[in-house]
Every structure is written in structure tokens, then in C-alpha cells.
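User: quick one, sequence for these C-alpha cells?
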């Protein structure tokens, strides 16, 4: 992409981002979940693996969504057999979110797709070049963050 007759880093980064998103989100076409539902399943899975219980308020905060939106998404995930709500000892009003085997399978498929994209993306790039790439990306982030000061 060029705005001044030469390549612009920002334009190339945007194009790569679009390609990655297109490739990644095509995986959702074969699954029964939306991107947001997949993200929520992944969020709950991550917390499970860290030994943390997850409640609706955690989903609301992580996704920055309203209670009513979270309720609707979680009810649909529950109806489709991806999530169960379980009572918590000590407070019958609290219900923790628990993934079903079906949700874990979908999560594993999403992770496999992400790993495949990462492999394809870095094909032909040496470890030394990757280190250099991340150093450059980190510097770009610092540069952009300084612009806002």
C-alpha cells in the first residue's frame, strides 16, 4: 500500500492484519459459534486452565459488554450445549460458568487453526529474523505510544 509513491509500514501492517483476520475467521464458518461466542469460550477455557472460576460478571468485564448482552450470549451458549451454569457453595445465587466437552472441542479447533495460521505466516522466516521482527514491532508500539503523550 502506498500513499506517497512508496511503501508505508502502517499500510502493510494493515493489509497483513486483514489477511490474518480473513484466514482466521474463515475457521468460524465451519463451527457453530460466532466470533464473540468463540472468544468467550476461549476466555472461560483460559481461566479454567489457570484454576479460576468464571462468572458472568467476568465475561462482561473482559468483553466490555452490558449485562443484558452477556446474558443473551451465555443463554444461547447454554442452549446449544457449550456452557453450563453451576451453583457455587456458600452462595446459591452465584452460578459459575463451566464449559462442556463440546465447547472444549470447539476451543481446541480454534487453537489448532490459530497455530496453523501462525506456522503459515512465519514460513521461511528464521528465528533470527523473528527476533528482529519482534524488536521492530516493539519499537513501533513504543513510538506510537509516545505520540499520545
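Assistant:
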Amino acid at each position: 500500500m502506498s500513499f506517497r509513491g512508496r511503501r508505508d509500514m502502517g499500510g502493510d501492517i494493515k493489509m497483513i492484519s486483514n489477511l490474518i483476520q480473513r484466514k482466521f475467521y474463515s475457521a468460524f464458518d465451519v463451527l457453530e459459534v460466532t466470533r464473540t461466542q468463540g472468544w468467550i469460550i476461549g476466555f472461560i477455557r483460559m481461566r479454567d486452565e489457570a484454576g479460576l472460576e468464571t462468572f458472568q460478571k467476568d465475561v462482561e468485564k473482559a468483553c466490555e459488554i452490558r449485562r443484558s448482552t452477556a446474558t443473551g450470549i451465555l443463554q444461547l451458549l447454554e442452549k446449544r450445549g457449550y456452557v453450563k451454569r453451576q451453583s457455587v457453595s456458600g452462595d446459591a445465587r452465584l452460578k459459575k460458568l463451566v464449559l462442556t466437552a463440546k465447547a472444549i472441542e470447539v476451543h481446541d479447533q480454534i487453537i489448532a487453526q490459530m497455530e496453523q495460521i501462525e506456522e503459515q505466516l512465519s514460513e521461511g522466516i528464521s528465528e533470527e529474523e523473528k527476533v528482529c521482527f519482534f524488536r521492530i514491532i516493539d519499537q513501533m508500539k513504543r513510538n506510537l505510544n509516545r505520540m499520545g503523550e
